[in-house]
Specification:
nine-stranded mixed sheet; binds magnesium ion; binds threonylcarbamoyladenylate; about 325 residues; 2 domains; DHBP synthase; about 20% strand; Rossmann fold; alpha/beta
């Protein structure tokens, strides 16, 4: 059932059930992070392999000290500016965090979502919420309550509807190795914004076999239709006569019906492009096309997170 009632959602969560919740990035599949049985239900609902750890969502940055053993100065600095927000920290975990949450890793991913309903919910609960994106494993992440209902509705007692996600791509994940900051997933907070506060960061978000972030699989966020990246003019010519759709950054193409074109932002606004990406991919995927042709955006700001999703969708 989809609804906007915070108390219903909170009650299910207190009983150890799994509930879909809105965040500013994508919808999450939430359960009591301190209850291993509730967390195991998350893995079941999502059909997610147990080796892929979950992010722990907290009511505020003040709670990080409970679930992490160490808080580097960089975390304090970034928290002041960007928490709540689309930034997840990977930190040495405290004993309060069950092993099933981190898939046995000694590091835990912590974040504070910047969504009014999610924040109210987290403040009302005496525990933090473990939550992966609320999609079946490997598919495109949901950015509306309806997306969640379409695929997982039958397996959930409640979907808390907080409207369409304002950011639209998952959080940026930042950890530390020998004290040096490393970005493991490009996401809703641009790397430039992070570097403005703590200086140069290393980006290690390309690998398909990254032992520090086992979930960052090469093939992910994938529509059912095959997705091919390149120059749209050339691709449209090469695949003329096939059932194609396109994902373009700014311009549309006269030779193709409008409903087959996902134009991310006619004005070239990265934030708008990110907000529209996943919903648009789902819409295209529902047309039963044989191919989706897509172009990459400039490699800057949120363009980098969008390109990362497009590359994985194409893999
Ligand atoms: O924006 C987001 O981060 C959304 C919303 C719901 O908060 N959540 C999300 O969760 O994208 P998920 O599970 O779809 O992606 C989390 C990523 C996975 O690639 C996982 O492997 C990685 O974070 N991760 C989580 N905990 C980790 C840990 N302890 N060590 C390494 N990687 C971790
Ligand atoms: Mg996910």
């Amino acid at each position: 059932m989809i609804g906007t009632d915070l108390h219903t959602a909170a009650n299910y969560l207190r009983q150890g059930e799994v509930v879909a919740i809105p965040t500013e990035t994508v919808y999450g599949l939430a359960g009591n992070a301190l209850d291993p049985v509730a967390v195991s239900k998350i893995f079941e609902v999502k059909n997610r392999p147990r080796f892929d750890p979950l992010i722990v969502h907290c009511a505020g940055a003040a709670q990080f000290a409970r679930y992490a053993r160490e808080l580097p100065d960089a975390v304090q600095l970034l928290s002041q500016k960007y928490i709540p927000g689309p930034l997840t920290f990977l930190l040495p975990k405290s004993a309060l965090v069950p092993d099933i949450v981190t898939a046995g890793s000694q590091r835990v991913a912590l974040r504070v979502p910047n969504h009014p309903l999610a924040r109210k919910l987290l403040h009302a609960l005496p525990f933090p919420l473990a939550a992966p994106s609320a999609n079946p494993f490997g598919y495109i992440s949901p950015t509306t309550a309806q997306h969640v209902d379409d695929q997982l509705g039958g397996r959930l007692p409640y979907i808390l509807d907080g409207g369409p996600c304002s950011i639209g791509v998952e959080s940026t994940i930042l950890g530390f190795e020998d004290g040096m900051p490393v970005v493991y997933r490009k996401g809703g907070l641009a790397i430039e914004e992070i570097e403005a506060v703590i200086g140069k960061v290393e980006v290690r978000a390309h690998s398909s076999s990254n032992p520090n972030a086992p979930g960052m699989l090469k093939s992910h966020y994938a529509p059912r239709a095959r997705l091919i990246l390149g120059k749209l003019e050339e691709l449209l010519r090469a695949y003329e006569g096939e059932q194609v759709g396109i994902i373009s950054f700014q311009r549309s193409y006269d030779q193709l019906a409008a409903d087959r074109q996902l134009v991310l932002s006619p004005t070239g606004d990265f934030a708008e492009a990110a907000r529209r990406l996943f919903a648009g991919m789902r819409q295209l995927d529902q047309l039963g096309l044989s191919l989706i042709l897509a172009e990459l955006l400039p490699e800057e700001g949120l363009g980098r997170a969008i390109n990362d999703r497009l590359r994985r969708a194409a893999a």
